[in-house]
TrEMBL record, chain A:
InterPro entries: NA-bd_OB-fold (IPR012340), Rfa2 (IPR013970)
Record-given protein name: Replication protein A3
Signal peptide range in chain numbering: none
Tagged with keyword Nucleus: yes
Sorted UniProt keywords: Nucleus
Sequence similarity: Belongs to the replication factor A protein 3 family.
Subcellular location(s) of the protein: Nucleus
Chief location category: nucleus
From TrEMBL, chain B:
UniProt keyword terms in alphabetical order: DNA damage, DNA recombination, DNA repair, DNA replication, DNA-binding, Nucleus
Record-annotated Replication protein A C-terminal domain positions: 161-266
Localization per record: Nucleus
Organismal lineage: Eukaryota, Viridiplantae, Streptophyta, Embryophyta, Tracheophyta
Protein name: Replication protein A 32 kDa subunit A
SUPFAM superfamilies reported for this sequence: Nucleic acid-binding proteins (SSF50249), Winged helix' DNA-binding domain (SSF46785)
Entry keyword DNA-binding: yes
Keyword DNA-binding belongs to the record: yes
Main localization (coarse): nucleus
PANTHER family associated with the record: REPLICATION PROTEIN A-RELATED, REPLICATION PROTEIN A2
Residue intervals of the OB domain: 71-140
The family this protein is said to belong to: Belongs to the replication factor A protein 2 family.
Length: 108, 275
């Protein structure tokens, strides 16, 4: 079993605590800036997603990005999944806090 | 009363007696029949930790509960297909585990045809150790259409983890209360007599919970249960040498959650449920 690649649930605020590590975050796609996607994190801040398949980024859709945190507000994408339009960002944000807080041992 | 016919042919009754003899190799033990088959939402990390912490790998225990069946949610990777089975690695973001889904019936083959690399699935199955390697057999693999299910699954993992640990912690706290009781000897015996399931219902941490449980136990005494009007608060103050405001807090809390109710007036309370 490969335990070297767990991805931590993060929002923009928590991203800073996991620089260089594998993370997962959900962003709502705001715009495409040729090669990078800019979107809103589940805690309302701006995140940039580098790389990734442009086809999985539809405007206003929620996209889960799994990749490496390589900047205060950016992720280098490895896997992207389109979560569609009907996604509860607030719940995901709550999960990020649970997974990094008191119940961290269940996740990482 | 057991009838021999029901078990005709079973080796248990080869001796001709109704009850299986102790020396007969029994495939069913009474404890296994009574143990409920649980289905617990878990993360792969929890499974890894459970494996690490025990010697006997035949029974995996998570949060003090034996993991009979489990639910996992994650991404499909390395899908391989053989004649009657499909195998893949499930990555749920906390770790990876190999899954096998046997597909013999047409309903099974229809289900496994939908499993593709890179999609999110919900897996229901059980663990199997194989040559020391962690592995799970799935009896259901469904691709997710509503991705809020991912969040729900992980939140439920936390919820169930909390529930199981609260039961364990509650029992430990109750033992601590019994040992450190400041009350006279007679009271201590009464405290020890009551079951600990009351503690499992408490939703708050801290010393307040111990006071709530002490007060509640007063209402659960057989002599008090028999009183139609219940117990008067003054009598409660007299019996428990605790600050009155703490007792009143406990009464208010217990009444709010429904464990006790007031009877003839606001000073008389009675235990509410007989479970």
């Amino acid at each position: 079993m490969d335990t070297s690649s767990p991805a931590v649930f993060v929002n923009a605020e928590l991203l800073k605590m996991h620089m260089g590590k594998r993370v997962r975050a959900v962003v709502q796609v705001a715009r495409n800036e040729g090669g990078s996607i800019v979107g809103q994190s589940t805690d309302g801040q701006q995140l940039t997603v580098k790389g990734g398949d442009p086809q999985s980024f539809t405007l206003f859709h929620y996209v889960e990005v799994i990749g490496i945190a390589d900047g205060n507000h950016s992720i280098r994408a490895e896997i992207c999944t389109d979560f569609g339009e009907l996604f509860d960002a607030a719940s995901y944000n709550g999960l990020c806090q649970l997974a990094n807080g008191k119940y961290k041992n269940l996740f990482i | 009363m057991m009838v021999a016919d029901q078990f005709a042919g079973a080796p248990l009754f080869a001796g001709g007696a109704f009850m299986p003899s102790q020396s007969t190799e029994s495939t069913i033990s009474p404890s296994k029949i009574r143990t409920p088959q649980t289905l617990i939402p878990v993360t792969v990390k929890q499974i890894i930790e459970a494996y690490r912490s025990i010697e006997d790998k035949s029974a995996i225990v998570v949060d003090g509960v034996e993991l009979a069946n489990m639910r996992l949610v994650g991404l499909v990777m390395n899908r391989t297909e053989r004649a009657t089975e499909v195998s893949f690695t499930l990555d749920d973001g906390t770790g990876r585990i190999d899954i096998t889904r046997w597909a013999n019936e047409s309903t099974d083959t229809a289900e496994v045809a939908l499993i593709r690399n890179g999609i999110y699935v919900m897996v229901h199955g059980h663990l199997r150790g194989f040559q020391g390697k962690r592995h799970a057999i799935a009896f259901s693999v469904q691709s997710l259409t509503d991705f809020n299910d991912i969040v729900l699954h992980f939140v439920e993992c936390v919820h169930v983890h909390l529930g199981h640990n609260r039961l364990k912690g509650g029992i430990a706290r109750m033992e601590m209360v019994n040992m450190n009781s400041p009350f006279p000897n007679g009271m201590r015996e009464q405290l020890a007599a009551f079951p600990s399931q009351v503690v499992a219902h408490s939703i708050m941490d801290g010393p307040a919970v111990e006071i709530y449980n002490l007060v509640l136990r007063m209402f659960q005494e057989p002599a008090i249960l028999a009183l139609e009007q219940g117990l008067h608060v003054e009598e409660l103050f007299r019996r428990l040498s605790l600050p009155k405001n703490q007792i009143m807090d406990a009464l208010n809390y217990l009444a709010d959650v429904g464990h006790i109710y007031s009877t003839v007036d606001e000073y008389h309370f009675k235990f509410a449920n007989n479970c």
